[in-house]
Amino acid sequence: MDITTVNNLHSGRDDWIINVRVVRLSNIYDNKNGTEQILIDLILLDEEGTPLHAIVRKNLISKLKPFLTEGKVITIQNMKISDANETYRSVNGTIKAILLLTIYITKMKNPSLKIPLHYFDFASPQILSERIGDNEMLTDVIGTLDALGEIEEKCIKGKDTKILKLKILTKSSSNVAELEQQQPLVEDSDSDSLVVEEEAITVEETAKREEVYAVIMVGGRQYIVFPGRFIYTNRLKGTQVNDKVALNKVLLVGTKTSTYIGRPVVTNAVVHAVVEEHGLNKKVIVYKYKKKKNYRRNIGHRQPNTRIRVTAITGYQDFPAVTLDSIKS
Question: How many CB atoms lie within 10 A of CB 55?
């Protein structure tokens, strides 16, 4: 079988040979268990600059992962091609590649073959407008995350799906006042998953915002927190989902220009958060053994946890700050 290109591939065969560069590699983990990898998602680029979406399933990750590195040029043999009929595709094409157990990956032997280093397909405001309500393609947008909305539950294709709305600011050379639209970015899986909807806002100038973070103590442990992000802590007893909590053990607050160091806490500083869910950590196995006593105990434990989302950090402004100027002096 001769080496071919992406434009000549079609479904129905599993013995294709192709020279490609791995331009994007994403490790996909289980939503429920964040430490278990279930997929490797790839974007491959051939010598003509044509992209190809490829996947490595769970049973082959340990075997093929050492041969797959972003930027590396490889020759893939025995590659299966199938129709790309799923939604939220990362490449605008009708086919995808599946790396099988019989696949053979080697370093490309033709050094004169030139394959582009990168592949980007950024969407203009006009393309974004055309993709409203269209869930076939993922969309690449460069901008600044301006606001993080609340998680909403909707029924999409008969499944209960969680929707997270983002507001992204982008800078355009054209004098466009404002453009708002929603575009799904992540496909929902068989279980309850999170679908991100983007609101793309194009403005001439973006106001500079002060970024703030804090170090807090919850249940004897220290966490670094940012407004709009979530953390997992030990179970907060007496709280329910959607309850608002105020955490006043703030050890440090930092901004772009100042740092507020507690003695031992920052007086009057409060981190406001919302309880999102109660769950359990990954199972830990405790095994006890006594030799020559026929004593063995295998015990599993899952520590209860709580996920909270930080909404604001307040009350630290009146505390003496350590600035860059004071350090230099």
Answer: 15
**HEC secondary structure over 208-228:** CCCCEEEEEEECCEEEEECCC
Q: Give the count of beta carbons closer than 10 Å to the beta carbon of residue 266.
A: 26
Q: Write the pLDDT tens digit of every residue in 250-288.
A: 999 998 888 999 989 999 999 999 999 999 999 999 999
The token pair at 108 is 């490309």
Beta strand 16-29 pairing with 37-45: antiparallel
Q: Tell me the pLDDT tens digit for each residue of 124-171.
A: 777 777 777 677 777 777 777 777 777 777 776 566 777 777 777 766
DSSP code for 142: -
Residue 36 structure tokens = 């278990």
Structure tokens at 154: 């909707």
Contact 114, 81 (CB under 8 A): no
Residue 204 pLDDT grade (very low, low, confident, very high; cuts 50, 70, 90): very low
